[in-house]
């Protein structure tokens, strides 16, 4: 296999740049929407994270994601939603057009003297319409054309590019044989399901797909309202997509949030940070226009402002971005803690290409060295530090809530969105598994598999790609800062 290809859609050219300048020309400065200072619940400042990510992590993690081992992710995109029936239609709001039964399709119409329509069909409803009513009917059908086109576009943009070379497919068989010979002591049904397939992440970049409306709202609403912790006395919706309910917005919302215990605050911040990261990816890789029949992608400042500007978000935009940094710190900490697992000679990032595998592991260990050098890590020991019984119960509740969120990803109606949602939740889940397994990692034997702690290929790929997404989000945020400064 080739060592890597450039992401589809990278370097979009003049059309995207012109569109961006037009957008910037009428937008006021929203520099105030950016975040600075020290993060809550840790002793790390945002400028330090920006510099560390820009000059140390981002260039290396980007190269790692292009390596064959991390480029291919095995995922089951056909698992049914376990919580509600998903109709599989386009999920854009008001987009669905009810198909007409084949037996009712008109084959011809003619007018009579009574200003009624005589339909040469068995559609009695149409046959009884007047000319005016019939014109109104067909006008409504015509008006649905744009919505139908939006549906088709969303379906096209959200589709998975399943292109894989025969050489890659043959290699996957060898990879599976190698993985099966390892002593993992766990089995992921999703990974071993006949419906699971390898997906080339470089051919399926995370970006705007048109997925929105009631289906997307229901997914995020379920994540926030049914799985995040909040006092029963608080009625203000956690879901930032939900309509406002009066004065319980902005700072007042965070007043009660700060009253929760650390673990419950952390849980909310992780979900909010993941949401912010995904939104940044969509803003940075937005469908700007069609150029010579091909889509053009680039940063959309108007969309960025809508999601993160303090005025338009009633003060919550900067908080969401702070939660992105907090999530980055959590996964950064996990990488530094899991380094000993990969530093052992027994661990091989196997693809069958000896030199490529050695280079990939060297690059990964180099990234781990950088993560360990970061001086302001989040202290996970402050979590679940109360009485043992209460801490154990809270930890299990924390785990089950997050596991439930990972299942909700099977309810996402867009395949490409589902792919990246599943990967990033599994990556975060793997990071949490690492943080809660410190003792097991410390006891790892050098030259034999560990029965106490093990990572599958799927978990490893998800962990590094999920962190790569966060690193990219922070880098994209820096780009937006520059664009905002130039727009002043």
TrEMBL record:
Annotated residues for binding of FAD: 207, 209, 220, 272, 275, 307
Q: Which residues form the active site?
A: 414, 417
Q: Which domain of life is it from?
A: Eukaryota
Membrane topology, from the record? Peripheral membrane protein
Cofactor(s), names only, from the UniProt record = FAD
- GO cellular-component terms in the record? endoplasmic reticulum lumen; endoplasmic reticulum membrane
Gene Ontology biological-process annotations: cell redox homeostasis; endoplasmic reticulum to Golgi vesicle-mediated transport; extracellular matrix organization; glucose homeostasis; insulin processing; protein folding in endoplasmic reticulum
Q: What GO molecular function annotations does the UniProt record carry, in alphabetical order?
A: FAD binding; protein-disulfide reductase activity; thiol oxidase activity
Q: List the disulfide bonds.
A: 90-95, 135-186, 414-417
Q: Which UniProt keywords apply?
A: Disulfide bond, Electron transport, Endoplasmic reticulum, FAD, Flavoprotein, Glycoprotein, Membrane, Oxidoreductase, Redox-active center, Signal, Transport
UniProt signal peptide: 1-33
Which InterPro entries does this entry report, sorted A to Z?
A: Ero1, ERO1-like_sf
List the Pfam families hit by this protein, alphabetically: ERO1
Compartments in which it is found: Endoplasmic reticulum membrane
Where does the record place a coiled coil? none
The similarity comment for this entry is: Belongs to the EROs family.
Protein name, as recorded: Endoplasmic reticulum oxidoreductase 1 beta
Q: Which gene encodes it?
A: ERO1B
């Amino acid at each position: 296999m080739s060592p890597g290809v450039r992401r589809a859609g990278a370097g979009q050219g003049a059309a995207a740049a012109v569109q961006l300048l037009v957008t910037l020309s009428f937008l006021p400065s929203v520099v105030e929407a950016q975040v600075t200072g020290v993060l809550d619940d840790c002793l790390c400042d945002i400028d330090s994270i920006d510099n560390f990510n820009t000059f140390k992590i981002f260039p290396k993690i980007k190269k790692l994601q292009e390596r064959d081992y991390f480029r291919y992710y095995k995922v089951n995109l056909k698992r049914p939603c376990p919580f509600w029936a998903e109709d599989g239609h386009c999920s854009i709001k008001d987009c669905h057009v009810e198909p007409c039964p084949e037996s009712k399709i008109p084959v011809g119409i003619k007018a009579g003297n009574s200003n009624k329509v005589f339909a040469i069909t068995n559609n009695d409803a149409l046959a009884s319409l007047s000319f005016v009513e019939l014109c109104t009917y067909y006008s409504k059908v015509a008006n649905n054309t744009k919505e139908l086109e939006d549906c088709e576009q969303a379906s096209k943009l959200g589709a998975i590019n399943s292109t894989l070379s025969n050489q890659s497919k043959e290699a996957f068989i060898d990879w599976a044989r190698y993985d099966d010979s390892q002593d993992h002591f766990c089995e992921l049904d999703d990974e071993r399901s006949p419906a699971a397939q390898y997906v080339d992440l470089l051919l399926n970049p995370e970006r705007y797909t048109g997925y929105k409306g009631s289906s997307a709202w229901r997914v995020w609403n379920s994540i926030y309202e049914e799985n995040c912790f909040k006092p029963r006395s608080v009625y203000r919706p956690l879901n930032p997509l939900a309509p406002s309910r009066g004065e319980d917005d902005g700072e007042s919302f965070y007043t009660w949030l700060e009253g929760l215990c650390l673990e419950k605050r952390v849980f909310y911040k992780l979900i909010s940070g993941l949401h912010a990261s995904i939104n940044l990816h969509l803003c940075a890789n937005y469908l700007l226009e069609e150029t010579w029949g091909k889509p053009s992608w680039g940063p959309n400042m108007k969309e960025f402002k809508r999601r993160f500007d303090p005025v338009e978000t009633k003060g919550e935009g900067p908080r969401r971005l702070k939660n992105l940094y907090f999530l980055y710190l959590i996964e950064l900490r996990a990488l530094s803690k899991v380094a000993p697992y990969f530093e052992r000679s027994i661990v091989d990032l196997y693809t069958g290409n000896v030199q490529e595998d050695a280079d990939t592991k060297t690059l990964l260990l180099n990234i781990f060295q950088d993560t360990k050098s970061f001086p302001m890590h989040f202290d996970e020991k402050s979590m679940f530090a109360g009485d043992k019984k209460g801490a154990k119960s809270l930890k299990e509740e924390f785990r089950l809530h997050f596991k439930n969120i990972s299942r909700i990803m099977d309810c996402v109606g867009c395949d490409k969105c589902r792919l990246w949602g599943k990967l990033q939740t599994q990556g975060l889940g793997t990071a949490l598994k690492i943080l809660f397994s410190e003792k097991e990692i410390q006891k790892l034997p050098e030259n034999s598999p560990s029965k106490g702690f093990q990572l599958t290929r799927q978990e490893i790929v998800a962990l590094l790609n999920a962190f790569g997404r966060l690193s990219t989000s922070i880098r994209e945020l820096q780009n937006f800062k520059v664009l905002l400064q130039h727009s002043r």
